[in-house]
Amino acid sequence: MFTGICKELRRIFVAVGMTAAVPLSAWAEGVQPGTNMFEPASKPAGEIFGLALLVLSICAGIFIVVGGMLLYAIIRYRRKPGDTSEPPQVFGSLQIEMAWTVVPILIVVVLFLASARLIFAIQDAPQPKKSISITLVGHQFWWEVRYPKYGIVTANEIHVPVDKATYFKLLSADVVHSFWVPELAGKTDCIPNHVNTTWILPRKTGLYLGQCSQFCGAGHARMLLRVYVDTPAQFKAWIKNQQKPAVEDPAVAAGREVFMDNACMDCHEIRGTPANGRFGPDLTHLASRDTLGSGTVLNTPANLREWIKDPDHFKPGVLMPAMQLNNKQLDEVTAYLCSLR
Ligand SMILES: [Cu+2]
User: Fold this and answer.
1) Are 114 and 50 in contact (CB under 8 A)?
2) Ligand 1 centroid to 183 CA: how many Å?
3) Which of 78, 118, 193, 226 sits at 20 to 30 Å (Cα–Cα) from 296?
4) Ligand 1 centre from 198 Cα, in Å?
5) 219 CA distance to ligand 1 centroid (A)?
6) How far is CA 332 from CA 102, 173, 254, 260, 269, in A?
7) How far is the CA of 36 from the centre of ligand 1 (A)?
8) How far is the CA of 302 from the centre of ligand 1 (A)?
9) What is the enclosing helix (H) or strand (E) of 157?
10) What's the gap in Å between 326 CA and the centre of ligand 1?
11) Rounded to the nearest whole angstrom, what is the distance from the C-alpha of residue 249 to the centroid of ligand 1?
């Protein structure tokens, strides 16, 4: 009987482990560095983690007390062999009933106050003058990233400086999405026609992975978000490069023509060219990004060509159509996009 239960439990653990491992292995091509909500690297995430530990320890305390008393009662008052007498019949006790009413109320009040205090501290934090502002717009199934102060538009990969607050204005172009970068901040929804805000104050440079955490359609699972926390010098250099209009390299003029002669330009903007579509990601500095399709695959020339040929192959449900270009056009437009550093 006991080994049977053990076997059953092991089966459940393995099944749970497998379901967790499948999405991880799907990203194992080096695209997905992984994320860990138990390792906060930014201010609101750290405070939320602290609160979670407080709640967890209070609940663990309750579990130990209740479980301990239950165990004690089961062992101490179990029926002994040969004992057929009736146990003492107790009808209510004011003290005990008071205790198990008042103590839980006090615990709930403590949990409520601790949570409410932190929610308001994060939600209503006034934006410091020297902070970075980003407008983040969720689209099916990618992120539009705007730095209004710097005049920059990019997609899916956010750069922010370390040890400096960044404030996000969260919007949606279609359905409800949700901003979630576990190591940097809690979840905040991106809702159409409603502005939500959140902020981060990262303490460590590096790459932090996020994910849209609201089911928003067929491509939802591949709507990842990458936040690069840079040193101030790296951040400045990145801003400077992103502010430039697109590179005009005569060597890839044929590919530029393919882009402008096909519907690409109706959906994508390339600053400094006639392409000014807004439906898809801004491609002005596409080659400076590490991934394609909101973190779906690494941005290599081979993947880029395959993406343009058939984006659905990498990202089922994607809203970019396969454009039916021939091999020559594919090579040319890939070379053009690779030049957009
Ligand atoms: Cu989404």
Assistant:
1) no
2) 19
3) 193
4) 17
5) 8
6) 74, 31, 6, 12, 18
7) 20
8) 26
9) strand 157-161
10) 32
11) 35
**Amino acid identity of 337?**
L
| Strand 157-161 with 224-230, pairing | parallel
How many whole angstroms from 293 Cα to the centroid of ligand 1?
Answer: 13
> Rounded to the nearest whole angstrom, what is the distance from the C-alpha of residue 2 to the centroid of ligand 1?
45
With b meaning 16 or more CB within 10 Å and e meaning fewer, what string describes 285-307?
bbeebebbbbbbbebeeebbbbb
Q: Tell me how far apart the alpha carbons of residues 210 and 225 are, in angstroms, rounded to a whole number.
A: 5
Structural domains in the chain, CATH included, are 17-24+31-75+125-224 (2.60.40.420), 250-338 (2.60.40.420)
**Span from the CA of 140 to the centroid of ligand 1 (angstroms):** 6
- How remote is the CA of residue 175 from the centroid of ligand 1, in Å? 8
Cα–Cα distance measured from residue 301 to residue 53, given in angstroms and rounded to the nearest whole number: 45
CB proximity list for 157: less than 8 A, separation 6 or greater:
145, 226, 228, 289, 290, 291
Give the global pTM. 0.85
Taking only the tens of pLDDT, the chain with its 341 residues reads: 445 554 554 555 444 444 444 444 344 444 556 788 888 999 899 999 999 999 999 999 999 999 999 999 999 988 888 888 888 888 888 998 999 899 999 999 999 999 999 999 888 888 999 999 999 999 999 999 999 999 999 999 999 999 999 999 999 999 999 999 999 999 999 999 999 999 999 999 999 999 999 999 999 999 999 999 999 999 999 999 999 999 999 999 999 999 999 999 999 999 999 999 999 999 999 999 999 999 999 999 999 999 999 999 999 999 999 999 999 999 999 999 999 99
Which residues lie at CB < 5 A from ion ligand 1? Answer: 177, 212, 216, 223
* CB atoms closer than 10 angstroms to residue 119: 13
CA of 294 to the centre of ligand 1 (A): 10
